[in-house]
């Protein structure tokens, strides 16, 4: 492996020597320009750019230099102080700007380049200075504090040698030199991550979220904290830039209003901010005005609402342990058991000539036996000798015992652990429930999602929201949570935020995680065709995404799952009167039925007695 590396290095050195020999023998590339051209050639060979923009006194530039640049797979584009290509600003990684002119023309090119915004960080500039130019005393007259430029200057002692300087932060620093056919550098000419050298970016922020972005004030000084501010700090630390946070006038993320964008998106569209931080959704409509960085995470939407009171029992809680269909089935079983017991007993009485039992007695005894058996209580059955009746009665009792045991166990569990049913569990439930009110965050992607939907549940949700205006739209998380405290009201927001709210306050509850909707990516918007997009994406990938920073943040704050307030639901208190009133209602119903039956029986007996007396002739 070492031998292979030695061979590769030897071949590279030979190539440099041959190219330098070619340049030194060319008709223009004579000895006076040999060092500059060789330095330029070797510098370009190490850079990943596609175009070299050359500013020169005229377009009669040396063919030897152009051919050497082309041999590196790079294209030459000539320019002067009056020609500026719009692509230069949008694709800084693709271009290197070379200024090789007299001092007067160099000054005008620098002024115009600065005006065009091409002297910002990431833009690669190389200025070849005249031999007589004094760097220490003169360069500060042409470059400013924010400029970042590489300078080539012939060594006065030996013209074939070239000194390489870097200008940044109003300081010129010697970073290397060219001698003996090769470049020797103490620092990289252009770094992988450009050092923005205290460059200031303007960042739009909408502090509507108390956990992802929070605005605090301490002794009249404003501070911003939260996940997205921390990500911005990590980028600033990596790329060495400063930033200034700006709030939109309307404190909104941004929607189209009167044909133009407002809020933070509008600030980017109008070049008032370089980028924005926050939980922005990548929407097709927004892509017309801004670009987006690589997604820092993903989110789903959930509905948060007031937790139903788990301490209050339903008045008819005794029916809760079994589903309605189970109650209906058990009632059918009792009726069917009565019918067969009555049929079998009647046949048995008739076959055995048991005159002691009348038709009414068989009916009455069979009915009460079925009812008492269904309540796990005994009763009197006509003396039957048939095995069919005994087998039927045995299986009636087995079924009854099993059902009663299931009911008793579920009733105990229901009284021990009270878990109230949510008003809604899905977005569909919220839409179809006429008593439930939906609340969303205005001027956000949430509003855009519902408002632009053409069909489906999102469209139905927007129709419901629109009918409930202005109550249904709020412009801060705080207001949305206040609305969610009302009965039958739900606030739509990001799952992680809603999870945190439910952890902090068990009076809130969210819809189940499996019923979340509208999964989408979260990314920071930037200016359209922003020249630093790729640089920021690379830094973001390295310091945030690859390390799983957002996921760790969610895990540390327990934002991945909603709160488990089961411990509170398990607290038992003395049963209140209104909680058992259903049992008293049931007794009242039974008492009423018994009175009606008593009246019917007495009436029936009186009628039968009178008929009997009339029949035997008793007055």
UniProtKB/TrEMBL annotation:
It is a multi-pass membrane protein. Keywords: Cell membrane, Glycoprotein, Ion channel, Ion transport, Ligand-gated ion channel, Membrane, Receptor, Transmembrane, Transmembrane helix, Transport. One of its GO terms (molecular function) is ligand-gated monoatomic ion channel activity. The keyword Transmembrane applies. It is found in: Cell membrane. GO terms for biological process: detection of stimulus involved in sensory perception. The keyword Zinc does not apply. The chain crosses the membrane at residues 327-345, 391-415, 580-600. Residues 209-270 form the Ionotropic glutamate receptor L-glutamate and glycine-binding domain. GO terms for cellular component: plasma membrane. Its main location: membrane. It holds the Pfam family Lig_chan-Glu_bd. This is DgyrCDS10267.
């Amino acid at each position: 492996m070492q031998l292979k590396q030695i061979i590769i290095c030897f071949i590279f050195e030979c190539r440099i020597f041959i190219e330098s020999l070619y340049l030194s023998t060319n008709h223009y590339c004579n000895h006076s320009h040999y060092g500059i051209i060789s330095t330029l050639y070797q510098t370009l060979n190490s850079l990943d750019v596609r175009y070299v923009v050359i500013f020169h006194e005229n377009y009669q530039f040396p063919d030897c230099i152009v051919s050497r640049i082309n041999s590196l797979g790079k294209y030459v584009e000539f320019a002067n102080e009056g020609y500026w290509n719009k692509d230069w600003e949008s694709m800084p990684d693709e271009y290197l700007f070379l200024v090789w002119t007299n001092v007067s023309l160099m000054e005008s090119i620098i002024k115009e380049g600065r005006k065009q915004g091409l002297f910002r960080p990431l833009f690669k500039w190389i200025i070849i200075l005249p031999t007589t130019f004094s760097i220490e005393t003169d360069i500060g007259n042409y470059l400013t504090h924010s400029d970042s430029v590489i300078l080539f200057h012939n060594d006065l002692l030996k013209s074939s040698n070239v000194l390489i300087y870097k200008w940044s932060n109003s300081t010129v620093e010697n970073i290397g030199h060219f001698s003996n056919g090769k470049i020797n550098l103490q620092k990289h000419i252009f770094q992988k991550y450009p050092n923005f050298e205290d460059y200031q970016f303007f960042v739009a922020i909408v502090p509507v979220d108390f956990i992802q972005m929070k605005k605090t004030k301490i002794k009249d000084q404003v501070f911003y904290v939260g996940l997205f501010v921390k990500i911005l700090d990590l980028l600033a630390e990596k790329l060495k830039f400063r930033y200034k946070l700006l709030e939109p006038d309307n404190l909104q993320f941004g929607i189209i209003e009167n044909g133009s964008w407002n809020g933070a998106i509008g600030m980017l569209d109008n070049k008032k901010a370089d980028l924005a931080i926050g939980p922005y959704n990548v929407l097709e409509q927004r892509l017309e005005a801004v670009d987006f960085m690589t997604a820092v995470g993903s989110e789903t939407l959930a509905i948060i609402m007031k937790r139903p009171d788990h301490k209050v029992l339903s008045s008819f809680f005794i029916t809760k342990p079994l589903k309605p269909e189970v109650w209906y089935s058990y009632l059918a079983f009792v009726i069917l058991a009565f019918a067969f017991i009555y049929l079998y007993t009647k046949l048995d009485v008739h076959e055995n000539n048991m005159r002691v039992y009348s038709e009414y007695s068989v009916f009455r005894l069979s009915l009460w036996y079925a009812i008492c058996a269904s309540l796990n209580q005994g009763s009197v059955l006509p003396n039957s000798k048939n095995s069919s009746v005994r087998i039927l009665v045995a299986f009636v009792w087995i079924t009854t015992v099993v059902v009663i045991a299931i009911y008793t166990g579920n009733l105990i569990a229901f009284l021990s652990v009270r878990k109230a049913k949510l008003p809604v569990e899905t977005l569909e439930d919220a839409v179809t429930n006429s008593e439930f009110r939906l609340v969303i965050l205005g001027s956000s992607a949430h509003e855009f999602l519902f408002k632009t939907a053409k069909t489906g549940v999102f469209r139905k949700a927007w129709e419901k929201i629109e009918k409930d205006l202005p109550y249904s739209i709020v412009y801060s998380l705080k207001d949305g949570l206040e609305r969610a405290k009302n009965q039958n009201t739900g606030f739509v927001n990001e799952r992680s935020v809603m999870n945190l709210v439910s952890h902090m306050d068990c009076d809130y509850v969210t819809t189940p995680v499996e019923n979340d909707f509208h999964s989408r990516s979260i990314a920071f918007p930037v200016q359209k065709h922003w020249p630093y997009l790729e640089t920021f994406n690379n830094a973001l990938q390295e310091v945030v995404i690859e390390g799983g920073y957002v996921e760790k943040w969610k895990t540390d704050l327990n934002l991945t799952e909603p709160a488990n307030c089961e411990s509170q639901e398990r607290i038992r208190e003395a049963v209140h009167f209104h909680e058992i009133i259903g049992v008293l209602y049931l007794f009242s119903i039974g008492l009423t039925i018994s009175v009606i039956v008593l009246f019917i029986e007495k009436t029936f007996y009186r009628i039968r007695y009178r008929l009997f007396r009339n029949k035997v002739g008793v007055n």
